[in-house]
Every structure is written in structure tokens, then in C-alpha cells.
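Hey team,

Filing this mostly as a record. A colleague (T.K.) asked me to run one chain through the structure pipeline before their review meeting, and I want the input and output archived in the tracker in case anyone asks later how it was produced. No errors, nothing strange. Just documentation.

Input sequence:
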Amino acid sequence: MNGNLVQFGGDLHLHLARLQVSLGNINGLFAGGAIAHEAEFVNRTQELQATIKESVERAVALREALRAGLERDAALAPETLSSWVSKRQTAQLHARADLIEQMATIAVELAALSTVEAERLTVTAIMARRQAIALQVEREKQL
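Output structure:
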């Protein structure tokens, strides 16, 4: 019986690890005065953009699956759940748990995909800010 929970945890683990890496990367951009060179930012932006392009269709499919799952679970009347419990209909209860676990896994995967986009936007924002500051400093030197 605990095998289901072990499998669920395993399914989540990969996505949670990706989420942690992306969040760590974003945090690292500002931690300890870490200053990346422009070339590093350009390379990282290109890597992230390629990753995002590969995952766009996946994200659309995941959002649709999540929406459908949420609607399906919301359509279950409380009386139905009560009936399943009182009649000890564990197959239906397990099926519902499977659906909810699947939705949780999808939500975590979507979060991981979103953090990749957040990382790309953060790197792009830093590059844009650096460019603006460099031009401002250059202009002020000319005055």
C-alpha cells in the first residue's frame, strides 16, 4: 500500500529537483556579489531559451490535463465520496487518489517549467539593467 506513496514521491522528486536548481540559479545571480560576465549571461539566456522552446507544447498539454483533472475532481459530489467510504469502495477511492497525485505531479512540473522561464527573464533583466547603466555612465563621462 505504501508503494503508491513511494511512487508518488519518486514522480515528484525529479520535478522538485529541477525546481530547486532553477530557484538556486536565480538566487545565485544575486548572492554574495556574484558578477557574471556578459558572455556568460548571453550563453545562459540562449540555453534557457532553447529549454523553454522545447517545453512550450509540454506546458500547454500539462495545463490542459491539470484543468481537466481539477474539473473532474470538482464534479465529484461529496455524497459520492461519502458513499464510497461507507461502502468501502476502495477501488474508487484509490482512483481518485491517483487522479489527485497526477494533478500534484503536473502542478510541480509546471512550477519547474515556470522557474526556468523566471530564470531566463531574470538573466535578461540583469543584462538590460547593466546595458542601461553602462550607457548612462558613458553619457555622464561625456558631459
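Quick notes for T.K.: Residues 90-142 form the longest helix (53 residues). Helices lie at 2-28, 38-74, 78-86, 90-142.
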